[in-house]
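Work package 3, deliverable 3.1, input record:
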Amino acid sequence: MSEVKFKRLALIGIGLIGSSIARSARLHNLADEIVCAARTADTRRVALELGIVDTAYENPLDAVKGSDLVIFCTPVGTYETLAKLVAPALEKGAIVTDVGSVKNAVVKAIGPHLPDHVDFIPGHPVAGTEKSGPAAGFAELFIGRWCILTPTGQASEDSIKKLSVFWTAMGSKVEAMDPEHHDLVLAITSHIPHLIAYNIVGTADDLEDVTQSEVIKYSAGGFRDFTRIAASDPTMWRDVFLHNKDAVLEMLGRFTEDLTALQRAIRRDDGETLFEIFSRTRAIRRQIIDAGQETPEPDFGRVHAAEDLDHKA
Amino acid sequence: MSEVKFKRLALIGIGLIGSSIARSARLHNLADEIVCAARTADTRRVALELGIVDTAYENPLDAVKGSDLVIFCTPVGTYETLAKLVAPALEKGAIVTDVGSVKNAVVKAIGPHLPDHVDFIPGHPVAGTEKSGPAAGFAELFIGRWCILTPTGQASEDSIKKLSVFWTAMGSKVEAMDPEHHDLVLAITSHIPHLIAYNIVGTADDLEDVTQSEVIKYSAGGFRDFTRIAASDPTMWRDVFLHNKDAVLEMLGRFTEDLTALQRAIRRDDGETLFEIFSRTRAIRRQIIDAGQETPEPDFGRVHAAEDLDHKA
């Protein structure tokens, strides 16, 4: 593996992902200086107290000055405004990338506003937790997870290589694909799962015949698994759906058609169809575990013991 | 807490739930003798090798003979046949219960076939993992989880009390409700979550433009959370949907209406509606964690480290 070290890494936004990059980049000595920009004084204070950045700026312009790697780590809805804002201060030869969960819209939101003398390489680390904010990050977040780059042809091979090595050094596996295909793949592996998780939590919350206290008490029957991803950052996810509309609507259409077929099978007491659909899904989970993307522990390795009860917040 | 000890506990079926009861009942000394009935020679052999039962019978009739507590632990579709089969051998004063995920259909499938001299108390421990079979069980499975009893008025208060103490001794919290309400509550907290998890895994498996290998690689974006419950036992779940048809179709209708509203918001770029729905769900997760029904660890406490990769099967 080749070595890579940046002079100054600028993280625009220092939430779960930005702060995890800061921690991991520092741990693996990938930049001489790490700075961030954050809108609120509180976030800047926390980032500094955690010791994960050298300087925390209010103005993104100040962060990108002199930086040879700039990473957008804010919700994708902010990218266009940010790109216009920082463009004049971008260093010649700097690599500009992002961590957004959609890519086609990001290419259009950022690309046109950047000067020719920088290399823009959209990126997406497929990693995260349901927590938000600078304190939620950790250096190990990217280990074993894929980072997808969607270079548009404008960036040099050398810059693409450097950015790949940066992600690999943090533990990621890197793959390149075109932005349209990324958006289709992530629609089914990430966006639709989040949408239906948010949806069922909303449906449960609205019931008249079943109380919220009952939903909570009996959530171990399956519901609680959905609440994890439905606890993810609402601003980030609003922006994902607004910026990957076509692929999400396409996949949602397929999901709904399939669900209607299941509904029909239940209504008609068609046990054979139900059994067939319920049978083929174990194999996929096995493959996800074999690919190192999931823990094989039953119930995600949740603790099933008396001590578990003491963790009550 | 009052003490309870049964003379002979008969488990009809010794899969995840049955074998967990066997382990926990033995650990807490809740029965002098623990026996099971299992259809296949292999299951009986494993149960005996694990040392979790004293005797493993092929014929359920032999298991219930002399037993003062009989628990049906097979898929609910088998209950009616089993009830007719074992009825003649049931001991006077025995408690007959089950662990099925639906209750109204179980009352009708078992109740009419039992002799008057036994106490029938339908039950449902809301606990489980995605694993199946006698080796998958563990004594701690029920700790902190709710067990719902749906007595029908036929059973004595004394028997209901004894069965409650039995579950409490294994770590459960016990609540009584009527079977119809149980089926409505579990439809939203368990049955619909399983249905949509099975469904999205099926949808992903059928795509032409996204390969299965891509679904697996990028599953950490959210999809993998759904595969856990979609890996649950297909026979058990087929039977749940066939036996809780009305409540499932009712809840599925609500889920689909809500999903259509979300789809409409995405199509119309209505970010405000999306944000509002995505915002209220964090509170529910917080309450589930506070109620001791979930781990507060980010990402379910999945390991995010290099060692995680060594767990590959």
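Chain B has a mean pLDDT of 94.
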